[in-house]
Write a sequence for this structure.
């Protein structure tokens, strides 16, 4: 089955991983800008990173038949540096017209601080000003519930935001309902220890239905599995779910969500797989 | 939407997995018991015991309840505390 991984950090992965993803049926992915594992020191560092995301990774993916898309921002961890964050936000419009840019992301909160919230709101302003879609990181572990609720407060405070164009990522059992009830898209991230397992992601599809739900691996430089989406597909099959339903979650939904972005020049594969219709 | 498997099929499929997970928990508690020092007053241990109590309940949202036990509480006054203006 063809699938799209809507959240994966390929700058942290090897070319072998691209090959493996291709063998597993991945034909498209989107890569949000994130933390490098250390705090960057200048706006030029981000300028180079954005070039890597919009140019080099796109070419590297294409060698394996994978279409690469990306999102731009300064991430929540580095948002503690407010002055640098504002320099990066001011620079982002230089890059927004690059091929494959889907919007602003992954913005959000990390430790739910005032500085993080301030920069989150300034990213929202940027997205609104340039009519960009938004991809949002929610915090980990104990901070997730509080941080997700804070993020929803800030999003719902602004009636200029089109909720159907916003993806709130890394939802789990205690946050998914809040996100979906407010009309946003929700992403489930399959991680070995924190976040969600393929089994629990299937549970959430069964409980909440497939609408506005995405599944991703968020593969990065930490303990993570870039082929986690195929694990989800296998678990859904083992439970007896239809191919149509599985395809809706791993392919049709990401295409539907990303298609709201001008940068999504996706070329569907030249084969006929049954579309997900009810 | 429901799960296509019956409860009996789920148990058939997951019995050994559940057994293995319970064993892992039991072994973790044994390890804590064997190790030098005392953690009885550690709040993390209280959270774990609270979560285990949830597993014994008959609720249909046990995963959500366990998540909330391990979560910081949401404070709906947070925007005031941060001096941020809310439109609501």
């Amino acid at each position: 089955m063809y699938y799209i991984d809507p959240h994966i950090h390929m700058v942290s992965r090897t070319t072998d991983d691209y090959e493996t993803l291709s063998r597993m049926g991945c034909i498209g992915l989107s890569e949000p800008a994130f933390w490098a594992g250390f705090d960057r020191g200048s706006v030029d560092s981000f300028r180079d990173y954005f070039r890597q995301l919009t140019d080099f990774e796109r070419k590297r993916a294409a060698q394996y038949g994978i279409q690469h898309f990306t999102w731009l921002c300064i991430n929540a961890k580095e948002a503690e540096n407010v002055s640098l964050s504002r320099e990066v936000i001011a620079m982002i419009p230089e890059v927004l017209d690059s091929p494959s840019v889907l919007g602003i992301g992954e913005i959000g909160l990390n430790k739910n601080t005032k500085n993080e919230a301030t920069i989150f709101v300034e990213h929202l302003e940027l997205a609104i000003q340039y009519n960009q879609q938004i991809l949002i990181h929610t915090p980990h572990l104990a901070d997730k519930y509080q941080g997700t609720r804070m993020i929803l407060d800030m999003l719902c405070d602004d009636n200029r935001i089109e909720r159907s164009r916003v993806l709130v990522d890394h939802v789990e059992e205690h946050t998914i309902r809040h996100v979906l009830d407010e009309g946003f898209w929700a992403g489930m991230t399959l991680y070995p220890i924190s976040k969600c397992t393929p089994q629990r992601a299937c549970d959430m599809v069964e409980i909440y239905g497939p609408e506005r739900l995405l599944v991703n691996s968020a593969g990065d430089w930490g303990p993570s599995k870039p082929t986690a989406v195929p694990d989800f597909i296998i678990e859904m099959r083992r439970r007896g779910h239809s191919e149509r339903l599985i395809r809706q979650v791993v392919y049709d939904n990401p295409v539907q969500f990303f298609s709201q972005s001008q940068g999504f020049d996706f070329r569907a594969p030249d084969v006929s797989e049954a579309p997900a219709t009810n | 939407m429901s799960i296509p498997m019956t409860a009996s099929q789920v148990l058939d499929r997951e019995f050994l997995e559940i057994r293995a997970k319970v064993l892992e928990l039991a072994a973790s508690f044994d390890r804590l018991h064997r190790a030098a020092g005392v953690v009885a007053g550690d709040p993390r241990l209280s959270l774990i015991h609270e979560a285990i109590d949830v597993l014994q309940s008959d609720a249909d949202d046990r995963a959500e309840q366990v998540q909330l036990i391990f979560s910081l509480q949401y404070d709906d006054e947070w925007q005031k505390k941060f001096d941020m203006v809310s439109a609501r």
Chain A is about 40% helix and 15% strand. The CA atoms of residues 44 and 88 of chain A lie 9 Å apart. Chain A touches chain B through 32 residues (CB under 8 Å).
